[in-house]
From TrEMBL:
<dbReference type="InterPro" id="IPR001034">
    <property type="entry name" value="DeoR_HTH"/>
</dbReference>
<dbReference type="InterPro" id="IPR036390">
    <property type="entry name" value="WH_DNA-bd_sf"/>
</dbReference>
<dbReference type="InterPro" id="IPR037171">
    <property type="entry name" value="NagB/RpiA_transferase-like"/>
</dbReference>
<protein>
    <submittedName>
        <fullName>Glycerol-3-phosphate regulon repressor</fullName>
    </submittedName>
</protein>
<dbReference type="InterPro" id="IPR014036">
    <property type="entry name" value="DeoR-like_C"/>
</dbReference>
<dbReference type="InterPro" id="IPR050313">
    <property type="entry name" value="Carb_Metab_HTH_regulators"/>
</dbReference>
<feature type="domain" description="HTH deoR-type">
    <location>
        <begin position="2"/>
        <end position="57"/>
    </location>
</feature>
<keyword id="KW-0805">Transcription regulation</keyword>
<dbReference type="Pfam" id="PF00455">
    <property type="entry name" value="DeoRC"/>
</dbReference>
<dbReference type="GO" id="GO:0003700">
    <property type="term" value="F:DNA-binding transcription factor activity"/>
</dbReference>
<dbReference type="Pfam" id="PF08220">
    <property type="entry name" value="HTH_DeoR"/>
</dbReference>
<dbReference type="InterPro" id="IPR036388">
    <property type="entry name" value="WH-like_DNA-bd_sf"/>
</dbReference>
<keyword id="KW-0678">Repressor</keyword>
<keyword id="KW-0804">Transcription</keyword>
């Protein structure tokens, strides 16, 4: 588990994009050597990328490691999961794709009844395996060892067989213009097929996704029925959501349960 100072360093990196050894040493009143050790550990976990004199938030052409992504914004993802689950009634059919936030949704759905869940996420399938009131259908295709995702043309063809009530999708990054982005074009092809074959598309994305970038375009916010996030990044983005006829739900503005 990350120590408290590591989480604070990650939060600063999310806010500013990069952090420096000298500034962090002053802020936390520790030696530069201690901060360098902290940054090296965070870089080994692929949460940050080392630069001369500091580090920056890991992003760009390669995604943060899957276990590391589980740690980032874990509370926010749990809140998003609960809010998405509240939108889905019993006896619904659902696509759930790859991602740590979509896994949080799956966790929140475990008390639902009569669901049919079609997924290319082995973590979701494993999570739901012991719940007999939920029928789980797993896509065939190429297993991506890094995160348990199933991708490739076979997975695309498999998803085309269905027309479901809801699709729960994630994105690695969301551009200010509303573009949805990811890293693996094979995963993107599956996600596009999922979106095309659902009556209601729910994008579950924590606010750090607005601070990142990725090279492959999944689609646009206008293709999403509902966006559930912890915090909208700006009034301008809220306007894009409204103009796209996309319902925006911010969990930090919801009453505590």
């Amino acid at each position: 588990m990350l120590i408290e100072r590591h989480n604070a360093i990650l939060e600063l990196a999310r806010q500013m994009g990069r952090v420096s050894v000298d500034d962090l040493a002053k802020r936390f009143e520790v030696s530069p050597q201690t901060i360098r050790k902290d940054l090296n550990e965070l870089c080994e976990r692929r949460l940050l990328a080392r630069t001369h004199g500091g580090a920056l938030l890991s992003s760009g052409i390669e995604n943060v490691g899957y276990e590391a992504r589980r740690i980032i914004s874990s509370k926010e993802k749990a809140d998003i999961g609960s809010s998405v689950a509240a939108l889905i009634p019993d006896n619904a059919s659902i696509f759930i794709n790859i991602g740590t936030t979509t896994e949080a949704v799956a966790q929140a759905l475990l008390q639902h009844h009569g669901l049919m869940v079609i997924t290319n996420n082995l973590n979701v399938a494993s999570l739901m395996r012991g719940y007999s009131q939920i029928e789980v259908v797993v896509a065939g295709g190429v297993l991506r060892h890094a995160d348990g995702g199933i991708v490739g043309e076979a997975a695309v063809d498999f998803m085309r067989q269905f027309k479901v009530d809801f699709a729960v999708i994630g994105a690695s990054a969301i551009d200010p213009d509303g573009s949805l982005l990811d890293y693996d074009y094979r995963e993107v092809k599956v996600t596009k097929t999922i979106m095309e074959n659902a009556r209601h598309v729910i994008l579950a994305a924590d606010s750090t996704k607005f601070e990142r970038t990725a090279p492959v375009r999944v689609g646009h916010l206008s293709q999403v029925t509902t966006l559930v996030t912890d915090r909208c990044p700006s009034p301008e983005f809220a306007t894009i959501a409204r103009d796209s006829d996309t319902q925006l739900i911010e969990t930090e503005n919801l009453p505590a349960i």
